[in-house]
Design goal:
Blueprint: H1 3-26, H2 29-46, H3 53-72, H4 75-78, H5 96-103, H6 107-118, H7 123-130, H8 134-157
Helix pairs in contact: 1-2, 1-3, 1-6, 2-3, 3-7, 5-8, 6-8, 7-8
């Protein structure tokens, strides 16, 4: 198998995870695309260093979180106002309202909620991948759920 085919397989296998996490962290389609591209460029430079798929997945999650954070805290970004775009690309109709509510959460809750519910990671995996204590992840999940409950309850009442 050629190097190009291996890279295509990696993007096919891990692309959705990286894309959705980048989107949930940035809440902007264009920024998520930038993060996605940068993560895979870095991945291709280091692809021979991974010992297992679990190691590869953890690295991709960590790199995506770091790239999104760097993008969001860059001096350029602080001096600009982003254009709001539809962040619903690739989300099934039945989940759009919930996903919109997730994207409206503060950044620290968005990532843990997304990884737990949309990616199916455990609290321990999220804590490891985001370099947080398990108790912190549990607290953020609890607070994020409470905020989601309120947001969705308000939507239903309208």
């Amino acid at each position: 198998m050629s190097s190009t085919e291996q890279r295509e397989q990696a993007v096919e296998r891990w692309g959705d995870l990286v894309w959705r996490l980048a989107l949930v962290r940035t809440a902007n389609v264009h920024d998520a695309q930038d993060v996605f591209q940068e993560v895979f460029l870095r991945y291709f430079r280091h692809e021979d260093r991974f010992q297992s798929d679990e190691h590869r997945k953890a690295w991709l999650i960590r790199c995506t979180v770091n790239r999104a954070k760097s993008l969001l805290t860059s001096p350029w970004r602080r001096r600009t106002v982003p254009l709001e775009t539809a962040a619903q690309i690739g989300v099934e109709d039945e989940y759009r309202e919930v996903y919109s509510a997730v994207l409206a959460l503060p950044e620290k809750y968005r990532a843990v909620i997304h990884l737990y519910y949309f990616e199916g990671l455990s609290v321990a995996e999220i804590a490891h991948d985001l370099a947080l204590a398990e108790g912190t992840v549990k607290s953020q999940l609890s607070r994020g759920r409470a905020l989601l409950r309120e947001a969705l309850k308000e939507e239903i009442e309208l």
